[in-house]
Amino acid sequence: MTEPETQSVTGKTVTGNTVTENTVTENSPELLANVFQAIETSEDLGFLRERQDIEIAHLLESVDVPRRLSVITSLPAKQYWQVLNLLQYETAKNIHTSLSEALATERLAQIAEGDIITFADFLPADFVEEFLLSQSAETVAHIQQALSYEDHKAGRYAEPAFLVANAKNSVGRIRNEILKRAEIPVRLVIVRDAAGIVGTVAPEKLLNHENNVKLGSLAVSTPVLNDTQDIYEISNQIPLDGNAHFFPVLCGEKVMGIMSLTTIAVTLRELSLKTIVPENVKSEEDLFTPLKVATRLRGVWLVINLMTAFAASAIIGLFDNVVQQVVALAVLMPVVASMGGIAGSQTLAVSLRGIALNHLHQSNLKLLVHKELKIAAINGFVMGGAIAAIVWYVFDSLALGLIICCAIGVNSLAAALSGTLIPFTLKKFNIDPAVAGAVVLTTVTDVVGFLVFLGLGALFLI
């Protein structure tokens, strides 16, 4: 039999049928800073090979594309797919599709059939076809069967590493049968009788019993999964207590494969943020904070928001004569404020998620700011141009169109900058950015939007 597969999953290592706690250091600011310094000074990144796969995955989530490529290039080709399996799917896709042709070819040479199933959606179709041609009929059938399921169904992840045996079979007979299949790993023996599946036995357990012991006496009741079952519901069905690590998957009444605890844990990683969100992220309010406490916390920021709303109104008051003379400005002010608010909320959501997942630090804050400003400049001025054309047509004023275009573009830049910096700054002062971030952001976008829009209106329309 082959060696049991080992993979690090959110602080635990699953090796065959053994789960052990693992001390995983989250992507620390020190590691991020060291990588940045090494890349800038053209130093070797070989020290990353001593880091765990989960640390490398966190690192890749925290840097831009050029630095991601530097990190990926420094890793052994065999480790590449292990790390990709720990990333968010879209991150893994973006990384792989950004590789040079030579590097992609080198990495594809180390791919396993499980990776083909996981990443088939973005792997080159011709490569998948060539890979299947080089595999056995059993492997091809397994991959084609897996790919026939949607990526959130249990059948997609079922492995053919099992043996179905009658409860009356002896340990000696099953042990001999496993030895005959030495070229195909058996990770689970599924025990059945006339009524159906009665339980499972880990192959390693057979070594501790005499040959004449009946298999039925060793079977342990294990949850049975259905091939069309949504994998996101499986966590409510299986026990994550470390006693079972493989589960039968049925297609109708027939066993089609087994699903490992490792696969379930990796697939459900997105739904288990509590296992990877660091404890040092302070939250003033959780889902079920007592009513009085939650009301007080939110009330404070509502009062602050009221004060900031008056600040935005004061900006409008400075240009009341302009608004009276050019009524179109009053009609279009909500458009400027809304565009800035939406752009800022998108950036704020990205920043909050980066903080929650421990991906955003002082070391890579500048990278995120540059990225968001570029996005804001493109979207802001493109959308501003489109709105300007409509305003020009409706109000028959080219000057008014150009003014609103500039106002939306500048406000989008301000929204991107504040949406990135505000949550990071609030976190520094131990203020919950999830509660306070939107209040500060709205103030910035309203003040900047009205100031630029009405200021330009006063200069060029009066």
UniProtKB/TrEMBL annotation:
Any transmembrane segments, and where?
300-319, 325-352, 373-395, 401-422, 434-461
Lineage start: Bacteria, Pseudomonadati, Pseudomonadota, Gammaproteobacteria, Vibrionales
Q: Please indicate if the UniProt record lists Transport as a keyword.
A: yes
Enumerate the subcellular locations listed in this protein's record, separating them with semicolons. Membrane
Give the matching Pfam families: MgtE (PF01769), MgtE_N (PF03448)
List, alphabetically, the PANTHER family matched: MAGNESIUM TRANSPORTER MGTE, SLC41A_MGTE INTEGRAL MEMBRANE DOMAIN-CONTAINING PROTEIN
The protein's matches in SMART domains, at most eight in alphabetical order, are given as:
MgtE_N (SM00924)
Single GO cellular component annotation? membrane
Name the membrane topology term: Multi-pass membrane protein
Tell me which SUPFAM superfamilies the record gives. Answer: MgtE membrane domain-like, MgtE N-terminal domain-like
| UniProt-recorded name of the protein | Magnesium transporter MgtE
- Give yes or no: UniProt keyword Membrane: yes
What is a GO molecular function of this protein? monoatomic cation transmembrane transporter activity
Instruction: Cite the Magnesium transporter MgtE intracellular domain residue spans from the record.
Output: 51-154
Q: Where is this region: Disordered?
A: 1-23
- Give start-end positions of Low complexity composition bias: 9-23
Where are the annotated coiled coils located?
Answer: none
**Main site of residence?**
membrane
What organism does this protein naturally occur in?
Answer: Vibrio aerogenes CECT 7868
